[in-house]
Design a protein that fits this description.
Largest sheet: 7 strands, antiparallel
Structural class: alpha+beta
Low-confidence stretches: none
Strand content: 25-35%
Order of helices and strands: EHHEEEEEEEHEHEEEHEEHEEEEEEEHHE
Mean pLDDT: 82
Shape: globular
Radius of gyration: 22 Å
Strand order of the largest sheet: 9-3-2-12-1-14-13
Distance between the termini: 41 Å
Number of strands: 22
Helix content: 10-25%
Number of helices: 8
């Protein structure tokens, strides 16, 4: 088994689909590609020199290759800084200060339309509508969709995060196309749609961790370029250990300092969209197998749609609705000691919270498990204070 960190440097603007049909002149600005898009690029790189991929080859790629990521890296002098999706459990005031959400229990006479299998003692995440100056607040994600990892860890540990993080420079471009008539093969008059691309700055790239569990695949020489996203646009590929996601040990002292403040429980933030499909549980919440932990709140801004391409059927995949990156979950720690809580954070650090094992549905639709494709990676942290206070 080999594990490498790949750095992908786009040569042209990247075009990412989101499982929704193109709409004329409507821009949808994805900042990072879906993990499934990246894992498809990785597996395709191992068969780039073949004119035909057999169903058996495609099945072997699914089970033998897994990824972790993607995340964005930015070169600053001789170092690569990691950027991750911003959290959804906060807002930005007009003066640029960040306001955390508040954990609230519904008052007497108030009701919540929870799913059937949800504990009705679940609390709500209240986000302020106005700052201290009385002006309306803005969404963190709309203003700064990507945060430096150091700042995201600070937010996750309840540290004072001052100033609105500036996301790396991404330029958006879009092109208008004419739809083709399937029967005539010519342009369909008046049928226009647009595709948009995101252009990375010269100092930006994508990073992913690629693990190969097949000696035959490990021996294959990989091309220096890969096709990522739509319209067959090329990106440069290289291995670079310096772009690896930092280890938990690099932040262990900050976790120790946060534990001294006696957190109320565990906070998990999604670094990649999550396909949560545990047996008997809802598709919006993780199924953590940790005795004593109890889910008490979640901050989820709707869903994100993903599709893909089935190599074995040579056809589009079905659209799936996933929990978006940046969503957050809050757990009561129960009787867990500080040592146990820290050990749990180390175990979860940038790891998937997906249900492991390939299901019958995965096999029928020729998919790897979501965890193998990089879905559901989490950034662990803590939440503090009593109900009704900031988290």
């Amino acid at each position: 088994m080999t594990t490498e960190t790949w750095v992908i440097e786009p040569r042209d603007p990247l075009v990412f689909g989101d499982g929704i049909a193109p709409v004329p002149f409507v821009d949808r600005k994805e900042r990072l590609p879906a993990p499934g898009t990246v894992s498809g690029m990785v597996r395709s790189a191992f068969v780039a020199d073949r004119g035909r991929v057999t169903p058996e080859d495609a099945a072997r790629l699914l089970t033998s290759i897994s990824i972790r990521g993607p995340w964005m890296v930015q070169r600053k002098e001789d170092k690569l800084a990691v950027w991750v999706p911003a959290p959804h459990d906060g807002v930005v005031s007009s003066d640029g200060s960040l306001l955390r959400g508040r954990l609230l229990a519904p008052a007497d006479g108030e009701g919540v339309l929870w799913p059937k299998d949800v504990d009705t003692t679940m609390r709500l995440i209240a986000l302020d509508e106005r700052g201290k100056d009385g002006k309306k607040v803005r969404s963190i994600v709309e203003e700064s969709p990507l945060w430096p990892l150091d700042q995201a860890v600070g937010w996750a540990l309840g540290e004072a995060v001052t100033g609105e993080p500036a996301s790396p420079t991404l330029t958006y471009e879009h092109r208008v196309h004419v739809a083709l008539n399937d029967e005539t093969g010519t342009a369909d008059a008046g049928m226009l749609f647009s595709s948009h691309g995101v252009r990375f700055g010269a100092d930006l790239a994508l990073a992913i961790e690629v693990t190969v569990r097949d000696a035959t695949l490990e021996a294959i020489p990989l091309p220096p370029t890969v096709v990522l996203g739509g319209e067959s646009r090329l990106s440069f590929r290289r291995s670079d250990a310096s772009a690896a996601f930092p280890s938990f040990a690099a932040y262990a002292k900050r976790f120790d300092a946060a534990l001294e403040r006696r957190p109320r429980g565990l906070r998990l933030q999604l670094l990649t969209p999550a396909c949560l499909r545990g047996d008997g549980t809802s598709a919006w919440r993780p199924d953590l197998d940790v005795e004593g932990l109890k889910l008490v709140a979640a901050c989820i801004p709707g869903f994100t749609a993903v599709s893909g391409w089935d190599l074995q059927k040579a056809a589009p995949r079905e659209v799936r609705r996933l929990v978006p990156s940046g969503s957050t979950y809050f757990y009561d720690r129960g009787e867990l000691s500080n040592t146990e809580l820290k050990a749990l954070c180390e175990k979860l650090w940038c790891q998937p919270i997906e249900v492991s094992g390939r299901t019958d549905d995965d096999i029928a639709h020729h998919r790897a498990t979501p965890a193998q494709d990089g879905y559901g990676l989490v950034l662990p942290g803590f939440w503090f204070d009593a109900a009704g206070e900031t988290i």
